[in-house]
Specification:
- This protein has 679 residues and is of the alpha+beta class.
- The strands form five sheets. Strands 2-1-7-6-3 form a five-stranded antiparallel β-sheet. A five-stranded antiparallel β-sheet has the order 9-8-12-11-10. Strands 14-16-17-19-18 form a five-stranded mixed β-sheet.
């Protein structure tokens, strides 16, 4: 027995069949510095960036809280002042003293100036105006304001209300003019057809008053917030004190009527405030549309700001404006970028210093390992004398190299011994193999001759016996059939179809005998071929097995869809189909369904016809299917000869077709006859 070893392809130096030792060691050395550390830094930077943004949001939220408190203080203080005036002795004296109208107007003028109000007037429950400041005021005494209704009901209330420009003009032409702003096209703002905002946002306050004659009234005052720069600058100074923001940043505050800046310290240009500009569409939708507080970056006029917006509601509970504070984002973003760049530069500096050190340390490890790897590669390629020859050292790699050289010495010696033994064994095996091969060849030749002789003798004997035994009764049948036809004369027409079928079947018996002889010597027989319609052949076969069908109560299903013709001896095709039908009927002794179908079907791009014969009978096992086309194999121990399917397959194969079968035990069997189309 010869032992052969396929030569292995040489591996490159330092290769281990996968990743090289150099690569692995470099990965171990550089992974922490070049992979893990950057990932850790990236994670920390992302977390720091999130915390930084959260801190900015928290700051601007605190700024909004301060602005809200101041705005609430303005509302509260205005209400307290008007309430205190209504309860004061001076006001009582002005109402009850002589020349009431002149004294009341003088008092209202004085107090309005002291309290910083834009208007102040007294109205009674019947809508009568008893006094007003400034004296030229002729306000529209609309008692439907919730603020005034509360005062007339005996209480006091302060709220923000939106006054039409006509009401402002009735109070003071200057107020109406101050409220009017031309709208400025603003990037990111919601589309609008308006070009002027003329309404006024007013701190509206009223307190209950009882006049001397028992008439109930309301002392009403207010402050117009449109272009009230003192108000908005005060908020900005409170929120963003000196040094509260880094250099380059700028704090801003704005009061919105709807989405229009009516009071702001945001600059449109160098010395022009952004009055009349509008808030972005996203902020307007969130704050005015949904009533939410906005705490995020937002585009303000011409730059990005860390912004906070909250809705302002009027005395009717409707969202009518917004209060905003924010600071420029750019300095903080620049600080983040500078920090990121600083970290990257520091990382690169550390990597530049440490990576060469790691590489130097790794080189002292992978150089000896690569040398051992090259030695092993040389040994694999047949050089058993290869050695590492590394100098002695005290580290582990040197000890491994020394052991490797010792093992290679042992391998070389064992290889020499094995080669000697192998040569001796091969010589003995070759001699014995030659003897066995010669004996096997003689045995196989003898066996083939015996099998062939036995088979030919059996077939010849069977064929001669069958031909003799069948031809004699067939001749008698044919002769008597002819005599019966001549005796009956014209009356034979009554059984014309039956007589014709008998003639055909007698002829078929003769053909079966011929096919039996054809099986023994197929080269001496060749059937006459002609063009046929597969459907008509199938229809002609059914009457031949009708008595078997009736006996077993079998339902027949016919499907004819084939349009092509086939070239085959009609009797031979009938023989095949009848044989398959009989087998199917025998497989359904208790009844069932027999399906016959012909259809056009191409196989390997060659047009042809597929004839399908399927039953719902007992089916066949895999072992039986593998042998059903073998001559003399049969499952009908007492009735069958085992030649039917073998002859059928021979007939179909001779026409260039195929006969295939599929079967499942207890479910049924399907035979497929495929024949090429007639040219």
């Amino acid at each position: 027995m010869t032992r052969t070893t396929a030569p292995s392809s040489p591996s490159p130096p330092g290769s281990t069949g996968g990743r090289s030792v150099r690569f692995r060691l470099l990965a171990i050395a550089l992974l922490p510095t070049l992979v893990i550390l950057p990932l850790l830094l990236g994670f920390m930077m992302a977390r720091w960036n999130g915390k930084f943004d959260a801190l900015l949001s928290a700051k601007v939220h605190g700024d909004l809280t301060i602005a809200h408190q101041y705005f609430s203080h303005i509302l509260e203080n205005t209400g307290k002042q008007i309430d205190a005036l209504g309860q004061s002795v001076a006001f009582r004296d002005a109402l009850s003293g002589p020349d009431e109208s002149r004294h009341l107007s003088s008092l209202l003028d004085k107090k309005r100036t002291e309290m910083g109000l834009d208007f102040l007037y007294l109205v009674t429950t019947d809508g009568k105006l008893d006094g007003a400041s400034p004296a030229t005021v002729s306000p529209t005494t609309n008692l439907n304001w919730p603020v005034i209704q509360t005062a007339l009901a005996g209480g006091s209330r302060t709220a923000v209300d939106i006054f039409p420009n006509s009401d402002l003009a009735a109070l003071s032409p200057g107020m109406a003019q101050r409220a009017r702003l031309n709208l400025v096209d603003t990037p990111n703002a919601a589309p609008t057809k308006r070009n002027i905002e003329s309404r006024g946002m007013v701190v509206h306050s009223a307190s209950h008053i009882e006049t001397g004659n028992g008439v109930q009234g309301a002392l009403v005052g207010g402050i117009l917030l449109n272009q009230n720069l003192v108000f908005i600058d005060t908020i900005n100074d409170l929120v963003y004190r000196s040094s509260s923001l880094p250099d380059g940043s700028q704090g801003t505050a704005t009061l919105f009527l709807d989405d229009v800046r009516i009071s702001t310290n945001v600059r449109l240009f160098e010395n022009r405030r952004a009055l009349g500009t509008r808030v972005s569409k996203a902020v307007r939708s969130a704050v005015l549309g949904d009533g939410k507080v906005w705490l995020d970056r937002a585009f303000v006029v011409n730059d990005w700001y860390i912004s906070a917006y909250e809705p302002i509601t009027d005395s009717f509970g409707k969202r009518v404006g917004m209060l905003y504070v924010g600071f420029l984002e750019q300095p903080f973003a620049r600080t983040k970028y500078e920090s990121l760049i600083l970290i990257i530069v520091a990382f690169l500096a550390v990597a530049t210093i440490t990576v060469p050190v790691f590489l130097r340390w790794a080189r002292g490890i992978f150089k000896p390992l690569e040398r051992m790897t090259r030695t092993i590669a040389r040994v694999e390629n047949g050089d058993l004398g290869a050695r590492t020859n590394l100098p002695a050292a005290r580290d582990e790699i040197s000890h491994v190299a020394m052991h490797l050289d010792d093992l290679l010495d042992q391998v070389q010696e064992r290889d020499r011994q094995l080669r000697d033994w192998n040569d001796e064994l091969n010589a003995r095996v070759d001699k014995r193999t030659a003897e066995l091969q010669q004996a096997n060849q003689q045995l196989e030749a003898t066996t083939k001759q015996l099998i062939m002789s036995e088979k030919l003798a059996a077939i010849g004997e069977i064929t001669a016996g069958v031909a003799h035994e069948i031809n004699n009764p067939v001749a008698v049948l044919q002769g008597n059939l002819d005599v019966m036809r001549s005796l009956l004369g014209e009356q034979a027409d009554i059984a014309k179809t039956e007589i014709r079928l008998m003639d055909e079947q007698v002829s078929r018996i003769n053909q079966i005998v011929t096919k039996l002889l054809q099986f023994a010597k197929p080269e001496e027989y060749a059937g006459f071929v002609e063009r046929h319609d597969a459907g008509s052949v199938i229809d002609d076969c059914l009457p031949l097995v009708q008595h078997l069908l009736n006996r077993a109560a079998i339902e027949v299903k016919l499907t004819h869809t084939a349009t092509r013709l086939i070239v085959m001896n009609r009797t031979e095709l009938q023989q095949v189909i009848v044989n398959l039908l009989v087998n199917a009927i025998h497989a359904m002794p208790g009844g069932g369904t027999l399906s016959l179908m012909d259809q056009d079907m191409a196989r390997d791009d060659e047009p042809g016809i597929l004839i399908t014969i399927a039953d719902t009978g007992t089916g066949m096992s895999t072992d039986v299917i593998e042998r059903i086309f073998d001559p003399f194999f049969t499952t009908k121990r007492r009735e069958g000869t085992g030649l039917g399917l073998s002859i059928s397959k021979t007939l179909i194969d001779r026409q260039g077709g195929s006969l295939d079968v599929e079967s499942t035990p207890a479910e049924g069997t399907t035979f497929y006859i495929w024949l090429p189309e007639a040219n």
